[in-house]
Every structure is written in structure tokens, then in C-alpha cells.
Amino acid sequence: MTINNLCCDICGRLLTGPRDGVRFVYHPGKPELRDAAGLACQACWDDAVREFGHAGKGRCASCGAVVSRLASLHLRRYDDPQSWRLCAPDAVGFLNTLRTVEPKLDPATFRFPFAAGTRHVAGDEGQDRNPE
Ligand SMILES: [Zn+2]
Ligand SMILES: [Zn+2]
Questions:
Q1: Does residue 124 belong to any structural domain of this protein?
Q2: What are 80-124's pLDDT values in tens digits?
């Protein structure tokens, strides 16, 4: 999705150019699936990451919960190789602030796609695998 490239993904403010905002990248533990099109104005970015304190590996940057690589959202500035991890509730909280995320995620049912013990697709209840 690139149609919002020049608007802040959070408040929708029109940015005068990529240098006017902060580009960011996120993925669910698999860098090849990253979304590198994130763009936020400086004010929104500062607001989003203000509470992020725990930069240590294996912990949610927001609440400090222990999270595994595949059970967290990896978020970083485009120009900064160090990424934060966010646990599921905090990832939902962040992602739902993005205008590019539609429909909004439901914290009650959100699962990271590759986390151990989770099913492949959310909302696949009722679709039993039929043996041939
Ligand atoms: Zn903004
Ligand atoms: Zn958290």
C-alpha cells in the first residue's frame, strides 16, 4: 500500500515529503514479510514511541513482557537497525493507530501468524480439514 505515502499514517496530516516524517518498518518476526511503507509525522512518531523503554531483546518495548521473536511485532525506524518488539496487545494498540490498517485488529482474537501454538489464520473457526 503506497497511496498514503505522503500522509502521516497516524494523523493523516499531509507531509511535504519523505524527509518531513519518520519512515518506519514492521514485521511479525519474519523480516521478509516486513511492511516498509510506514510513514508518520514527527509528532505522531514521538508520541508512539515515547513510552518505549525496554530496548532489550526478548521483551516488549512498551510493557516489558517477555516475548519470543515470532510472537511479537518488530518495529523500527527505517534508518535505525535496532528494532523494538511489541507484545500482542501493544502491537494491536500500535497497529490500530495506523490509517493503513483496515479493518482494525481485534485485541481479543489477534494472533501473530507464526507464533508457536497459534493457528495459521485468524477466524478459521468452523473450517474443519476434510480428509479426502
Ligand atoms: Zn501525524
Ligand atoms: Zn507489551
A1: no
A2: 988 999 999 999 999 999 999 999 999 999 999 998 765 544 444
Dist. CA 66–CA 111, nearest whole Å:
16
Q: Is residue 125 part of a domain?
A: no
pTM, to two decimals: 0.81
Of the candidates 4, 18, 24, the residue with the CA atom closest to the CA atom of residue 81: 24
Could you tell me the distance, in angstroms and rounded to a whole number, from the CA of residue 11 to the centre of ligand 1?
4
The cell numbers describing 40, all together, are 508518520
- Nearest listed ligand to the Cα of residue 12: 1
Residue 42 belongs to domain spanning? 1-113
